[in-house]
Design brief:
elongated, MetI-like fold
Length: 349
C-alpha cells in the first residue's frame, strides 16, 4: 500500500506539471497577451505600445523560461529601466528595491502571481473564494449523498416494482436536467412573483457573509438534484446485483429477516461501487459550481473562474487550474484507497 501511494503521488506530481504547463502555454498565447495589455491600458493602443507593455511585464519570455519562473525554480524576470529609471520584475515588492527583493518567487515559494482584475495577490483571492465554495460543496454533499443512497437502496431492494420504476424515473429526470435549467426553474417558482410563492427572497450573494435557509437553499438544491440521480442509479444497480447473490438467497432460506439481510449483508457490499462515484463528485462539484454560482451570483471559486477567463486574468487562471488539477488527482487517490479498504478481495501488487 505504501509503495502504491508513493507511485501515485509521483504520478500526480508529473500530471500536475504537464497540465499546468499546457494551461500556461494556452493562456500565454500572443492574442491573449495582446487582449490583456489592451484591457489594462487602452484598447486603441498601438502594436509597439502593446509589445513594450508585454516586455516590461515579462510576458514575452519563452514558454519554458516563463513556466519555470512561475513555478519558482529559476529567478524571476527583471526588466530594463524605463525612461524614468524604474525597474520592474516578477519578484519586485512594493516599496522595496530590486536588490532587496527575493530572486525566486513562484508557486513553490507561495507566490501565485497578481490578479489584474481584482488587484490582489491571486493566492489570497483563491483562498477566500475556495472557502466559500467549500461551504457550498459541504452542504450539497450532506444533502445529496444520503438522499441519493436512500433512493438507490430502496429502488434496488425491490427491483422491478412500482417503487423502483418511480424512483428510477426521478433519478433519470434529475440527471438529465442541467443546472442552468433547474436553477432558472427554481428561481421562477420559489423566488419570483410568477407563482406567488416567494419563499426564498434572499440573494445567494448574502450567503457569503451569513448562510441562512433563505439564501442558500436554491443553489444547494440545484446542484444536489443534478448529482443525486447519477449516484442513485449506481447504488440501485449495485444493490440489485447484491440482492440476487447466492449468500443473500442462503440467508433468506435460513429465515433471516429482510431488514437484517439488507443492513447486515447487502448494504456494505452494495456501497463499494457508489463510493467511487461519490468521491468523483468532488472534482465535478468544484468545476460544476461555475454555472450555479454565476446564476445565483454566489462569488466562490466558480464565479472567480468565470471572471478570470472572461477578463484574461492569466495568473488567476493558472491558480484555478492548479487547484482543479490537485482536487481531481487527490480525490482519485482517495477513491482508489477507499475501494481497496471496502473490498478486501482486491489486493495491490
Amino acid at each position: 500500500m505504501v509503495k502504491f501511494i508513493i507511485r501515485r503521488v509521483g504520478l500526480m506530481i508529473l500530471t500536475t506539471l504537464c497540465l499546468t504547463l499546457l494551461v500556461f502555454f494556452i493562456t500565454n498565447l500572443y492574442p491573449n497577451l495582446e487582449k490583456l495589455a489592451k484591457t489594462q491600458l487602452n484598447f486603441r493602443m498601438s502594436d509597439d505600445a502593446v509589445t513594450s507593455y508585454l516586455e516590461r511585464n515579462g510576458y514575452l519570455r519563452p514558454t519554458p523560461v516563463g513556466y519555470a519562473q512561475w513555478l519558482g525554480v529559476i529567478p524571476g524576470y527583471v526588466s530594463e529601466p524605463d525612461k524614468e529609471g524604474k525597474i520592474t520584475g516578477r519578484c519586485k515588492l512594493p516599496g522595496v528595491t530590486m536588490e532587496d527583493s527575493p530572486k525566486y518567487c513562484g508557486v513553490l515559494q507561495g507566490y501565485w502571481g497578481y490578479s489584474t482584475v481584482f488587484k490582489e495577490p491571486a493566492l489570497d483571492i483563491l483562498t477566500k473564494r475556495l472557502g466559500l465554495t467549500g461551504w457550498l460543496m459541504l452542504t450539497v454533499m450532506l444533502v445529496m449523498i444520503p438522499a441519493a443512497l436512500l433512493l438507490g437502496i430502496f429502488s434496488g431492494m425491490r427491483e422491478g416494482s412500482k417503487l423502483d420504476r418511480t424512483l428510477s424515473a426521478f433519478s433519470i429526470t434529475s440527471t438529465a436536467t442541467p443546472e442552468y435549467v433547474s436553477g432558472i426553474v427554481f428561481i421562477a417558482i420559489f423566488s419570483s412573483s410568477a407563482f406567488g410563492l416567494k419563499w426564498f427572497k434572499g440573494s445567494a450573494t448574502s450567503a457569503m457573509d451569513d448562510i441562512t435557509w433563505v439564501n442558500f437553499t436554491l443553489p444547494v438544491m440545484t446542484i444536489a438534484l443534478y448529482g443525486m440521480g447519477y449516484i442513485a442509479r449506481m447504488t440501485r444497480a449495485s444493490m440489485a446485483e447484491v440482492m440476487t447473490s447466492q449468500y443473500i438467497r442462503t440467508a433468506r432460506l435460513k429465515g433471516v429477516s429482510f431488514t437484517s439481510i439488507v443492513i447486515k449483508h447487502a448494504l456494505r457490499n452494495a456501497l463499494i461501487a457508489p463510493f467511487t462515484v461519490i468521491m468523483l463528485q468532488f472534482p465535478w462539484l468544484l468545476n460544476g459550481v461555475v454555472i450555479v454560482e454565476t446564476i445565483f451570483n454566489y462569488k466562490g471559486f466558480g464565479w472567480v473562474l468565470v471572471q478570470a477567463a472572461s477578463n484574461n486574468d492569466i495568473d488567476l487562471l493558472l491558480g484555478c487550474s492548479v487547484i482543479a488539477v490537485i482536487v481531481v488527482l487527490v480525490t482519485q487517490l482517495i477513491s482508489d484507497i477507499g475501494y481497496v479498504v471496502l473490498n478486501p478481495r482486491i489486493r495491490i501488487n
